[in-house]
């Protein structure tokens, strides 16, 4: 019969070496906070329940992870053993406990699956995930007896010179049988250099009781690397982004220059999409098949259909339909819904705008809080004047309308179906369907005026220079 497994993720620490106002586990790697990467690894490994131990900035951690996990509170930062003990009630009657750390963003489900399987086979009181490092500085060392059995784990601050030479180290990740784990945790004392309740001391207590402690070697040090400072954060970022790039290239996405392409962890990309250099696909983005993105595209939290092209432009929290063309140097701001076949030209800006199929929003135009119908032409330099200093107002441009260059549409205003707005007009009233709106001063030509002006200038100083 399967036995229930509960993962306990330690996420209560201050992370002093990060030198940050933000809790360490909330620092992001590839668009997700570190603790979320750990939770996702536990989910991928098939654990039955996840408990996150929170302390510093507990509410922020809860806000980010939501209801997918349970929570326990470590009221005082008294060490890792104290943190796991704080989770006892939340763990409930699970048969086994998998202890994880919230600052390991490179952790993957298969690594945990291997550890869990070995632990269940052996039925040891504890099964530790260990790794051998060329430079084990900063890690707790695995101390074994002459027969190769684990005796204890010693933290570097408490290790002798001989113990510090040991290359096999404790990753911190381990599976325990629940009852002996919590019995040992209640026996911990802070008799160490840090004055804390060390989780690693549980191993010594279990062995003193004659209980078995097994180890499973991690196949690669990378997935079990913790992040304690900004330099380690940068290394984790680089490693995870490389994984992401390889994953998408294997799935049929072309990256012209992988090193300059940044793709966040939750982004989805359709096959045969080509991504050009210096392009960023940020969290929450969904890219259809056959798109051409970049050079210099930044797409964040947006949904793009098939065969969309975006280059040297920014798209934020918006939707672009099939076959849209955006750029260069355009900005699609949050809240836009762009129908298929729309062309957004050079230096155009849109905000909270709906644009109908086949419309053209040309150069140096601004559409804010606008509803634009199908087939509309927006001339260069058009502005929807949406803000009166107190509130935003909507502009509606119905299907097939034609807006001439350098027109100002002062909202709230509606341009009817098939209507024309003459270039240079400032429109303050609704334009009926199929009408022509001209809202500008009538041109007056004054014959000979320029010649007379030049003559007056020459009369003043003799050379026409004022």
At the third CATH level, what is the topology name of the largest domain?
A: Spore Coat Polysaccharide Biosynthesis Protein SpsA, Chain A
Report strand order across the widest sheet. Answer: 12-15-18-21-24-27-30-33-36-39-41
Number of helices: 10
Low-confidence stretches: none
Give your account of this protein's structure.
The protein folds into 2 domains: 5-224, Spore Coat Polysaccharide Biosynthesis Protein SpsA, Chain A, CATH 3.90.550.10; 230-437, Hexapeptide repeat proteins (UDP N-Acetylglucosamine Acyltransferase, domain 1), CATH 2.160.10. 21% of the residues lie in helices and 28% in strands. The protein is built from 10 helices and 41 strands. An 11-stranded parallel β-sheet has the order 12-15-18-21-24-27-30-33-36-39-41, with helices on one face. Helix 1 (34-44) crosses helix 5 (109-122). The N and C termini lie far apart (100 Å).
